[in-house]
Write a structure and sequence with these properties.
- By secondary structure, the protein is α/β, with parallel strands linked by helices.
- The chain contains eleven helices and nine strands.
- The chain has one domain.
- It has helices at 4-23, 26-43, 46-57, 63-87, 92-98, 104-111, 127-136, 151-161, 174-183, 216-224, 256-273; strands at 99-102, 117-121, 141-145, 167-170, 187-191, 201-206, 209-214, 227-236, 239-244.
- The longest helix has 25 residues, at 63-87.
- Strands 1-9-8-2-5-3-4 form a seven-stranded mixed beta sheet, with helices on both faces. Strands 6-7 form a two-stranded antiparallel ribbon.
- It is 52% helix and 18% strand.
- Helix 1 packs across helix 4, helix 2 packs across helix 4 and helix 3 crosses helix 4 (63-87).
Length: 287
């Protein structure tokens, strides 16, 4: 439980950042974010987790190369932390002008089956901007999330995330909310790249390492028949490029475990191609 002083300090920082995002152009806001992200990487105790994660996944690369990926990761997440407040208040014209959306036909094809669809992604690129852009283009999503401990901040950020029709599904008891969206032939955002308790998941290869991974997505796909559309986003100038890939459908004989392997393989390919865009700060393997 956070103290009242902590909650007030968080709100102060949020409103200060919100004011800055309204005044500063994207390029300056993003460069400030990059600088703060690099400083955080260099000074934070989380640097140890980042470098340990990178050593685990890239043992054959030099320490300097891994350190460079860590620096770029800090810069990237500083950028998206700073620019999200501006994106979430931007006009539809600004969003459409700066966000390039590729592969929308894959989501359309998945929904034509009438069973809903999952958008599979990770804490990679700028998943929040991707969700905003899709909802603006007429594809609102049910977004599974863990509500913040700060109720005032949660309310303000929730308004921004849902401004074009997205809905928020609390992580606790999310199954009912996800099924409700699927039954309406809707779309559910799901990120499966964070650590799972052993009893809630299975060992599945993630970034080449056997890793406990939640199997809920595989179970839901087999019970609902929904398609899974991978989604990844990449910085492009001061904007982003959002890529949707071909739908993944279960084959006869698939199990929740085999589907989880498939989904982890898709995420792993994208992360290994551009590793600095993934959240190495996350303690995925309990360093």
């Amino acid at each position: 439980m956070k103290s009242a002083a902590t909650i007030r300090f968080e709100l102060f920082l949020y409103r200060l950042s919100n004011g800055a995002s309204a005044l500063l152009p994207f390029w300056l806001l993003q460069n400030l974010g990059r600088a703060v992200g690099v400083i955080f990487f260099l000074l934070s105790a989380r640097r140890r987790i980042v470098l340990a994660n990178l050593h685990r996944v890239f043992p054959g690369r030099s320490g300097w190369i891994r350190f460079g990926i860590g620096l770029r990761c800090g810069a990237h997440f500083g950028r998206i932390a700073f620019d999200y407040l501006k994106w979430s208040r931007s006009s539809p014209e600004t969003l459409r002008g700066k966000i390039r959306l590729n592969g929308l036909e894959h989501l359309q094809r998945a929904l034509e089956r009438g069973k809903g669809a999952f958008l599979l992604s990770a804490h990679f690129g700028h998943w929040e901007v991707a969700a905003l852009t899709l909802s603006l283009e007429g594809y609102p999503q049910g977004m599974v999330h863990r509500p913040l401990d700060n109720a005032v901040l949660e309310e303000e950020l929730s308004e921004r995330r849902t401004r074009f029709g997205n809905t928020l599904i609390p992580k606790k008891g999310a199954l009912k909310g996800m099924l409700k969206v699927l039954h309406k032939n809707g779309t559910v955002d799901i990120l499966i790249d964070q650590k799972a308790e052993a009893e809630a998941g299975v060992e599945s290869s993630f970034l080449g390492i056997p890793t406990p991974t939640v199997v809920s997505l595989g179970k839901l796909v087999l019970s609902s028949g929904a398609a899974v559309v991978p989604l990844f986003s990449y910085p492009e100038g001061t904007g982003y490029r959002v890529e949707l890939l071909e739908p993944l459908l279960p084959s006869p004989g698939d199990t929740p475990e085999s589907l989880t392997e498939t989904y982890n393989a898709v995420l792993s390919r994208a992360i290994l191609e551009t590793p600095h865009l993934w959240l190495w700060f996350h303690n995925r393997w309990r360093v």
